[in-house]
Write a structure and sequence with these properties.
Oligomer: single chain
Low-confidence stretches: none
Helix content: 25-40%
Structural class: alpha+beta
Radius of gyration: 13 Å
Number of helices: 3
Distance between the termini: 27 Å
């Protein structure tokens, strides 16, 4: 449990050049630091990873939610829609 907490702590903030606003980086995971800036329904503190070949997952500790998308094609355009649909379904 302690390792999980450390991995989702922000080590690279969104204020560094080239970073997405509202999204920092922990130890190998993306971390939502401001959902309004990131323009997402994910809760602040949600963390996850996206693979090159269509995989995408996130953990939302606030909502006690884990979501996984597995596709066999690059699914960059599916990721935001997947996040939105899942989060709207649980609200």
């Amino acid at each position: 449990r302690r390792v999980l907490f450390r991995s989702r702590a922000v080590h690279i903030p969104d204020t560094m050049p080239g970073r997405t606003p509202g999204e920092g980086w922990g130890l190998a995971v993306r971390v939502v630091t401001d959902n309004a800036l990131r323009d997402t329904y994910l809760s602040k503190g949600s963390f996850g990873w996206s693979g090159a070949s269509g995989t995408h997952f996130w953990v939302d500790p606030e909502k006690h939610l884990v979501a996984v998308l597995m596709a066999q094609v690059p699914a960059v355009s599916l990721r935001p829609d997947f996040e939105t649909v899942v989060m709207q379904a649980v609200q």
